[in-house]
Amino acid sequence: MELVASARLRRAQMRIEAMRPYADRMIELMAGTAQAAGAVRLPLLERRENVKSVAIVPVTGDRGLAGAFNAQVLRRAFAEMREAQGAGQEVRFFTSGKKAQSTVRFRRLTLAQSWTGYSDRPAYSDAQAIAHAVAEAYVAGEVDRVVLVYNAFVSPLVQKVTVSEVLPIPTHVLEGASEDKPSHPVDFFFEPEPRQILERLLPVYVETELYRALLESAASEQGARMTAMRNASKAAGELIDTLTLAMNRARQAEITQEILEVVAGADALTQ
């Protein structure tokens, strides 16, 4: 299992490296279009002052044997749930992965929708399905905020639990400027109008963010499983060594006892 996870990890890393530049470019394009469009009112940009309902999207795997990979995501998701409930907000779960689905059902929490069967190798269509569901719930007013919880891939040994607000789309994403990357306004001619382009880009941005989270989670799962199986193999080897030593000592003690009994019996006959 360690070798299989290692091979899958390399493929997952390649997919992440190919995805990240696209996601970064998507944010830059959307930020430029938003600046050109100016102040617009679109459903996915609407920030509601009175948040009554929150959707939490925990991204886990379909299988276990990956150390604390699934548990740490669920632990953080439930912490977000308690925080929202403490503020008087209703919480709904849109789960990705069998582990999140089974845990939410076991705790008898509100499970709006769930998706399974792709955690090892997620496709863009999987991210689209989740994005369409949460976007529809947000536009319809069923939820006022959508929070994504997943493991971000840092290295095969390190997976960082990340909480990201997907909807409403954060303001800093539309501004597209930071201390490291200051904005440089450039005049472009837009066809069609910037507002129409932005209206098309916003759903694609949500899909892209979810797809990035699924890929990050897939790589993190393989890294966690590889590490867990390596530690399990090491622990099993140590246990085998310990039991072998104990067995050899017991056998040696038994042989010694038999020799003593034979010697004692021989002494008794000679006397």
Task: Characterise this structure.
The chain has 271 residues and is an alpha/beta fold. The protein has one domain: ATP synthase, F1 complex, gamma subunit (Pyruvate Kinase, Chain: A, domain 1), CATH 3.40.1380. 59% of the residues lie in helices and 14% in strands. It has six helices and five strands, in the order αβαβαβαββαα. A five-stranded mixed sheet has the order 3-2-1-4-5, sandwiched between helices. Strand 1, helix 2 and strand 2 form a beta-alpha-beta unit. The longest helix has 77 residues. The protein starts with a helix and ends with a helix. About 3% of the residues have low confidence.
What's the quick description here?
Helix content is 59%, strand content 14%. With 271 residues, it is of the alpha/beta class. It has a single domain, classed as ATP synthase, F1 complex, gamma subunit (Pyruvate Kinase, Chain: A, domain 1).
Described by the principal axes of the CA atoms, the overall outline is: elongated
What's the structural domain tally?
1
Note the gap between the termini: 65 Å
- Report the total helices: 6
* CATH superfamily label: ATP synthase, F1 complex, gamma subunit
CATH architecture: 3-Layer(aba) Sandwich
Portion in helices:
55-70%
Summed over residues and divided by their number, the pLDDT gives a mean of 83
Based on helices, strands and strand pairing, what is the structural class?
Answer: alpha/beta
Query: In this structure, how is the largest beta sheet organized?
Result: 5 strands, mixed
For this structure, the CATH topology is Pyruvate Kinase, Chain: A, domain 1
